[in-house]
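Two proteins were folded this term; both appear here.
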Amino acid sequence: MQITTTRSSNPVSDERLAEILANPGFGVHFTDHMFTVEWTPDAGWHDARIEPYGPLSLDPATAVLHYAQETFEGMKAYRHEDGSVWSFRPEENAARMERSSHRLALPVLPVEDFVQAVQALVEIDQRWVPEAAGEKSLYLRPFMFASEAFLGVRPSQHVTFMVIASPAGSYFKGGVKPVSLWLTEEYTRAGRGGMGAAKTGGNYASSLVAQQEASSHGCDQVVFLDAQEGTYVEELGGMNMYFVYADGRIVTPETGTILEGITRSSIIELAGKMGHQVEERKFAIEEWKQGVASGEIVEIFACGTAAVVTPVGSLKWDGGEVGTPEGGDELWKRIRQELVDVQFGRAEDGFGWMKQLV
């Protein structure tokens, strides 16, 4: 893409930026610029630009506001000790957005253009990438939406792709702790042929009421079962799951109706390299309950871009509870450390996962 750049005339001061990066939180502060490119059937992708970060002006009839035709990605930029800035498997995020775009009837942004857009924004806003201490990073949010002002139910004839960025602190304040889970038996997230494997806002909107249910029962996250039989574990509100057995096997729910996480696939590769057999298959909720009770399941953990890897504690449901698995050797911790060390340049990248942006 040919990208034009208009620099902000009022960037955040160095003093204010230092304050933000000292305690960035998550999704609260945004960098000085944003990337935009537009699509129409006649012109294709065009008018790629970086310009000052600011509000969008949308017609009340803008299609995405009515029919939720949109996709997004979540990824990070990491500052290495030598000052360079890297991303983790950005081509996989681009490929997943391609798959999501097909499912949402949106135009496909080529992988190389996606990566170029992310890199261009990070280059101009590189001062916003925090130092690695405390697992700080720059969170990147590429997203695409139906921007045509039209109320008919059909694929939009004007689409906008953007990238914005936000400095992020560690997901865990005070150290990593096991998350407690609530099993929702009333709500499901996606069915066969639905949009569960697409990273689209509707999937997250459908999880919110179940997350409220979990919170009302004192739990951190919600567990969804399959929509067809209500038997098989699918995913959490925003994370994929792994179950470690006493013999070293690891089971993770198969995809198809759940999101194919980038961290998820990386853990499958990494665990295999560490000598563990990883099974991707249907995993019944009863296997979870009985496996923990018998001691056959010794460890459970979840993963996602924000948390990387987190251990899972107790599981509660209406009328019952199963406690935290015992007998594991904290495989989650070794996997998490390996991933984080690769991302921040403290360990050799034996898989070729990292791409230098700056």
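Next, the second protein.
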Amino acid sequence: MKAKGLGYAMNTSEELNFVKEVAEATGVVLDPVYSGKAAYAMLKDMNENPKKWEGRKILFVHTGGLLGLYDKVDQLASFVGNWERMDVNESVPRQDGIGKMF
């Protein structure tokens, strides 16, 4: 199975849309660098070669990598709508005052 796609940290729109659809359908957020590409390639191969996968037990291990989404904000914007990158020096104040230092 060839899951590297265009190369390290480079994604097709199909891969990014897949990551979005999995998150919407399951609540599981795959990163676009490793787990997203691997799951996309696996499911694509399962659909294209069903006999090869018939009767198999499959364990897919999601190892994290959510920070890989940070650099994809611009590419994902057309899929998810109103995303914005929040820089480290920005913060979202809590409405209840919990965590207020002063």
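Helices lie at 13-26, 35-48, 50-53, 73-80. Residues 13-26 form the longest helix (14 residues). These notes refer to the second protein only.
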